[in-house]
Amino acid sequence: MAIVKGWQGRFFEDYKVGDVYRSRVGRTVSEADNVWFTLITNNTNQLHYNRQAAKAAGMPDCIVNSALTLAIVAGLSVIDVSENGVNLGWKEIELPSPVFPGDTLYSQSEVLDLRESGSRPHMGIVTVRTEGLNQRGVVAARYVRSILVWKKEAFPNASTFPEPIADETSERLSLGSAK
User: What domains can you pick out in the chain, each with its CATH number?
Assistant: First the structure.
């Protein structure tokens, strides 16, 4: 049986200034996502979870928590941008349009800059501008992010998939022992 490696993410050598990576999938934000995230993060702004307060403020519905919007947009970009890296910082964060429950978010990132790391020769720094768009193509979020990315030859996490072993359940049953 041939084991074929799946997508491993981009390494420093794979990026080119000007390349644009678009998320392969979108993510619809549910009302439950918004309420849970808002409550878990102790955000007391009722515009995120009180429909009457949102309508009194002139909104058609509750507004999705902006930190959740950023988290989803960033998450959608991980497979293309930062799967093999560590965030160094975010700047120029803008939220030009609100997101409402039921909106679907997509992410696209443009490579702005590449440079070798001065302190970690086995890594490089990639700077991208990411935009989160809703299903109508309206930009809901944008930011610039720098990521410290591994070079392919130095990547320490070559394989994390476990080697198959005998089924422990059938082994325990045949031995008559319980763990």
Answer: 12-154 (3.10.129.10)
List residues bridging with 87 in a β-sheet.
Answer: 147
Instruction: Decide if pLDDT at 174 tops 70.
Output: no
H or E element at residue 171: helix 168-175
Distance, CA of 10 to CA of 17 (rounded, Å): 14
- CA–CA distance from 42 to each of 37, 56, 65 (Å)? 9, 22, 11
Helix (H, G, I), strand (E, B) or coil at 131: strand
pTM over 0.70, yes/no: yes
pLDDT tier at 96 (50, 70, 90 boundaries)? very high
Residues contacting 148, CB < 8 A, separation 6+:
85, 86, 87, 88, 117, 120, 123, 124, 125
Check: CB of residue 149 under 8 Å from CB of residue 11.
yes
Q: DSSP label at 118?
A: S
Closest to 65 in 3D by CA, of 51, 48, 52, 53: 48
Helical ranges in 28-167 per DSSP H = 31-40, 51-56, 66-81
The residue type of 120 is R
- Note whether 10 and 124 are within 8 A (CB): no
